[in-house]
Each structure stands twice: as structure tokens, then as C-alpha cells.
Amino acid sequence: MDKSLSKIILAFFIFIGIGGGIVNAQNFTVTGQILDENELPLKYVTVFLSQDSVPLYVQPSNATGKFTFSNVKPGQYVFNCSFLGYHDFKSDIIVDKDVVVQAVKLSVNVIEIGSIEVVGSLPVIRREEDRFIVDMSKSVVIKNKNGLQALNYLPGVIIRRNNNITLNGKEQVGIMLNGKRINMQGQNLSKFLEGLRGEDIDRVEIISNPGAQFGASGQGGILSIHLKKSTNQGISGNVFGGMSQGHYADYNGGASLNYNYNKLSLYGSFNYASRNDYITSHSILEYPLDNVCQITDDVDRREGNNYNFRGGAQYAINKKHSLSFQIMGTISDDDNKDRSQTL
Predict the structure, then answer these.
(1) Spatial separation of the C-alpha atoms in residues 244 and 56, rounded to whole Å
(2) pLDDT in tens, 31-72
(3) CB atoms within 10 A of CB 325
(4) If you count Cβ atoms within 10 Å of the first and of the last residue's Cβ in the chain, which end, N or C, has fewer?
(5) Would you give the distance in Å from CA 314 to the centre of its chain?
């Protein structure tokens, strides 16, 4: 082979090797540990790095409270920690080299009910072969939260701006209710979950890598929600109502009815929620070379009503087997009004 050709080929491979090293060198590692107030490790805490309120790297802390993000692109991020029963933690970090985050201590959330202070109940999380099971039955943190908001407290779960549910950063998360798949997607699914009450949730099973028995859907994982069951014999029920105040007032209410007789259970519920969102944004874009500054103000007003219904029956054949039937659905109407001004 011609010597000059050999030198060209050698130079090419050296360039590729150096170029690959430069590309790899542009990504870094972010590590750290999450502790409680007693400096004991906290496991299953949702840890994520975000930019412009969009989570980009998501991971739950391990059994020793530690986490590791690999291949993080350089830039400025908001470091976030979220865990049911604790106050959220946020801090700005700059990734221009490998970063070791100083040990983060989360404090227990204390909720005031009237003149009484209630320490937020900590979730009981246990690990089974293919899933985490989070007991939410005694948590006061999810009181007055809807079902979608309650899911946001689960380890590895983040609800994005468009109410899209992600698990460990993955989309296409399947949702099950009382062992049955909810055949809804997008806004219909989020509105149905918003119609559930957080305090009605007994436990949630988090399946990060669902097996073949769950089918092709739910490739991003499965969240299996189990609601509390009435064990009272005869007829029982409840009626609730509430209001929350932001820029505009939101209202919600509903009723449920249960009938239990020996091995037979009948149940039904109807929930209503109004939606009055008012979202403002202000952005400034500068183009120094053209000596241009663009200022944009956006106002997004979203109004709507959401009606949820659920009903079913169950007959217990024995302690391990039962026959059940369930129907659920949601009806909604939305009116979005956008106003934008650019200078």
C-alpha cells in the first residue's frame, strides 16, 4: 500500500478517535445522596434534573439513598427531589464537569388542620419481585388532592405540563384501576384521574418493566391503582364538596354508594370538577448581532367541566378468586382562550 495513503488512513482513524473522545467528554456524571432529618438514607426518592420546568433526567434513589445520572449534557439545571410525606427540594446546579451534589436532607411535611399540626404520614413502600407497592391509605399529604396530583408523589413518577404521566423519564405509561386496564389516553385519561380523590386511593403498584402479561401497551411502565373498599355490610356512602382558589376559583364535588351483602358487592360513584386555569408567561429573546430584542407576553385561560362516573359489581367465590364487572368513563367540555402580545 502506498505510504501516503497509509498516512491518510491512519490520520483519519486518529481524527475519529479524538473526535469521539471530544464528544464523550462533553457529557458528565451527577451523583449524590438523599437523607432524612436524622441523616439516615432515604430510598425511592424521585430525583430529577430539569430545564424550563421540563424534567430531562429522572431516577429514584437506591436503598442507600444514592443516585447517579450518567451522560448529562453540560448546562444549567434545576436539581429536584420529591417524596411523599416530605417537603420538595430544589436547587440550581451547573454541569460543566462531573458534579457531586452535597448530601440533601429532606424534612417531613407538617400540615395544619385547623389549630392542629399533623405530621405527614410517610408512605410504606415494599419491594416485590417485579414491582414497588406504595401504601397511601394513611397519608394526609394527599388529602384534598385529586388522583392525578396524588400520582405525582410516587417515586419515579412525574406529571408534565400537559398532564402527561412519565415513569423514570419514560412516557407511554399504562394505568390500571382495581386490576383493570383503563382504556383511555391523553386528556381523557388525565381528566378521569383528576376526577378521583387522592384519599380514596389505598395503594399503587409501580411496575417499571412490565412483563408479557401486560401486553404491548404500557411500554413505559404500569401504575396499578387500587381504591379503598368499603367493608361495611349493607348500604353505605358519602358525599363531598370542595373549592380551591387561585386566580379563579375551582369547585369539585361528588357522591359514592356501596352495597355489601355476604359475598356480593355493588358500588358506584359520580364526581364533578370545574377547571379555571390562568397561566401567564413572559419571555425575552435577544439577538445581539442584529441589535434586536423580542419580548413576548402570553395569557392562557382554560375553562372546563369534568364529569366522572364509575360503577361495578364483585362476587367473591373464595378468598383468592372472584368475579367482577366494572364500567368507568369521563365527560368533559373545555374552552381554551389564548392571548399573545409580542414587542
Answers:
(1) 30
(2) 999 998 889 998 888 898 988 877 888 888 888 999 999 999
(3) 11
(4) N
(5) 30
305, burial (CB in 10 Å: exposed 0-12, middle 13-18, buried 19+): middle
Under 8 Å between Cβ of 271 and 308: yes
CA distance 341 to 296: 6
Q: What is the pTM of this model?
A: 0.62
Strand, coil or helix: 235:
strand
DSSP character string of 113-175? ETTEEEEPPPPEEEE-SS-EEEE-TT-STTTT-BHHHHHTTSTTEEE-TT--EEETTB---EE
Q: Find out whether 32 and 103 touch, Cβ atoms under 8 Å.
A: yes
pLDDT at 93 over 90: yes
Rg of the chain over CA atoms, in angstroms? 25
C-alpha cell at 12: 483519519
In terms of Cα–Cα distance, which of 122, 125, 87 is closest to 104? 87
In whole angstroms, give the CA distance from residue 317 to residue 164: 38
Supply 296's cell numbers: 413576548
**Number of CB atoms found within 10 A of residue 51's CB:** 13
The whole-angstrom separation of Cα 201 and Cα 73 is 38
